[in-house]
Amino acid sequence: MTVLVIGSGHNALVAACYLARAGHRVEVLERDEVLGGAVSTVERFPGHLVDRGSSAHIMVRHTGIIEDLELERFGLRYIDCDPWGFTPSGPGGDTPIVFHRDIDRTCASIAAACGTRDAAAYRRFVEVWGPRTARVMRAFGGTPTPGHLLRSFWGLDARGGSSALSREFLQSGDALLDRYFDNERLKASLAWFGAQSGPPMSEPGTAPMVGFAALMHTLPPGRAVGGSGALAAALVARLRADGATVTAGDAVTALQRAGNGWRVRTATGRNLHADTVIAGTHVLATLDLLREGGFDDSVLDDWQRRIRVGPGTGMVVRLATDSLPNYPGSSTDESARGLQFLVTDRRQLRLAHGAALAGDLPPRPVVLAMSFSALDPTIAAPGEHQLSLWAQWHPYQLADGSDWADHADREANRIIAEVDSYAPGFAESIVRRFVQTPVDLEREMGLRGGNVMHVEMSLDQMMMWRPLPELSGQRVPGAPGLYLTGASTHPGGGVSGASGRSAAQLVLRDQRRNRFPLLRKR
User: Fold this and answer.
1) What's the average pLDDT block by block, 10 residues per block, for the chain (522 residues)?
2) β-strands 261-266, 271-274 pairing
């Protein structure tokens, strides 16, 4: 079987790896000269390997994909982010909150910063939501059919019955936090962690996003040595070792059904034939390719109208500095190794999200700082450090009609000033900077609307509804042999690889059924 994979995002590469390992002829086609999509690393500054998209890898370390594909043999190595989270003292000089992998050390930090009641509550939170989140990860491991979801959560302790358990999963993250904790700074820290999935924690169904914090005490976020792109590089190396072809700098321009297979046209004039196509591009980009290939316009129009990208998620400032942020009352051993939650209350989060919905810049940027050169000095020039400052929420389209280029530098200054307010003197440490606005994220990596999750991670676009009920099975009705993968599909955005593995499993299952027709009756 000949398989063409469109796009080289990590999910597309994972799918390609599984199929190449199974002995199929696989070629990956990437429009960019850089492989890996949003999981890629380039030299932005002299001596600095800077991520283009993701930086910390959380979910993929819980899927078993890294071990299954033996990616360590192809150069991939992770360093644990431990402590995995850090909230600095606020304007009132509060004690910092440090989230260690070790639950006892974390609870001791929470007790010192927030009180013993919240420390005990956090321990209960981890005990309850750790197993629940493990089941969520299990649900992420396959297509979201009712049977798979039922098997994923079967046997989970449901105190109060299955109805009560369902209610807890469907509640908002804020409701979950208010149930467990008193201290607002602790609530804001966990709400900001949960909000990395995109939606604010005021939305229904966001409780499991907060619940992911409990899983960090089993295996914390990991930093790939050499940058986020080391994951993509290992996948590409695995592919080539299994005989697959990876072609960069050749964009697919049309997908057309041809007999029992597909004709794939590229920007360089190639006309390729494949038995199977896996599209790892943004779902809207995939639908555009089908339109160019003559697929039913009325169907495509309906799908494209119903898929909601959202107002944009955020922007990033990448920095080379001569030192790490110096947060009062803590050492860099506590603050610099994981995710730095620069937030004091959830009101700041709510105001930022509300402004984005209105097409405005946040009254005060909310910043997640990451300084992974503290873990991996190889990504920075000698004597320097590197930081990524991620800020939510920033709209893709500004209500006043102005161009993002007119705001980029000023907004970057505000984001840097926000860090400086927590770590005085930080702004003076900056040597170089690179700004990625929502428009830049779209232009460079094909992230429509600047949304790093492809389409909104709201309850109505998750699980069996992502990105639409008709497309949630990772197949396209009326287009046999075409499969979808990537952040547009279940389980959504973030670095997991689960969608890629599911797509490959579907291809292999369908191939077996086509080879042995009697299996279709089972």
Assistant:
1) 96 98 97 97 97 95 96 97 95 89 98 97 96 91 85 73 79 97 97 94 95 96 97 98 97 95 96 97 97 96 95 90 96 96 96 95 96 97 97 94 96 98 97 97 94 93 94 96 97 95 96 67 46
2) antiparallel
Neighbouring C-beta atoms of residue 413, cutoff 10 Å = 14
CA 92 to chain centre: 33
**Do residues 175 and 207 touch, judged by C-beta distance below 8 A?**
yes
- DSSP code of 433? E
- Please state, in angstroms and as integers, the Cα–Cα distance from residue 135 to each residue in 395, 426, 464, following that order: 33, 41, 16
Q: Of 463, 406, 382, 518, whose CA–CA distance to 142 is shortest? A: 463
Q: What is the pLDDT of residue 89?
A: 92
Query: Of 244, 297, 321, whose CA–CA distance to 74 is shortest?
Result: 244
Q: How far is CA 116 from CA 111, 113, 119, 123, 521, in A?
A: 5, 9, 5, 11, 60
User: In the chain, how many domains are there?
Assistant: 2
Domain boundaries, position 258: 2-40+227-308+455-521
Does an H or E element contain 479, and which?
A: none
Torsion of CA 247, 9, 454, 464, to 10 degrees: 110
Amino acid at 125: F
Rounded to whole angstroms, how far apart are CA atoms 313 and 394? 6
Residue closest to 354 by CA, chosen among 126, 133, 200: 200
Q: pLDDT at position 156, please?
A: 77
**How would DSSP label each residue in 165-177?**
HHHHHHS-HHHHH
Cα separation, 280 vs 445, whole angstroms = 12
Q: Say what the pLDDT of residue 147 is.
A: 86
pLDDT score, position 90: 78
Cα(404)–Cα(418) distance, integer angstroms: 20
Tell me the CA distances in angstroms from 262 to 17, 153, 223, one per residue in order. Answer: 21, 38, 39
pLDDT (0 to 100) of residue 149: 84
The pLDDT of residue 146 is 84
> DSSP characters for 379-410?
GS-TT-EEEEEEEE---SS-TT---GGGTHHH
Residues 475 and 513 in one domain: yes
Examine the domain organization and report whether 102 and 158 are in the same domain.
yes
| Residues 126 and 197 reside in one and the same domain | yes
pLDDT of 522 reads: 46
Tokens of 349: 């989060």
Is the domain of 287 the same as that of 375?
A: no
SS3 122: helix
Both 143 and 34 in one domain: the answer is no
DSSP-derived 3-state class of residue 124: helix
Check: CB of residue 14 under 8 Å from CB of residue 65.
yes
Biggest alpha carbon distance in the chain? 70
Quick one: pLDDT at residue 172?
A: 96
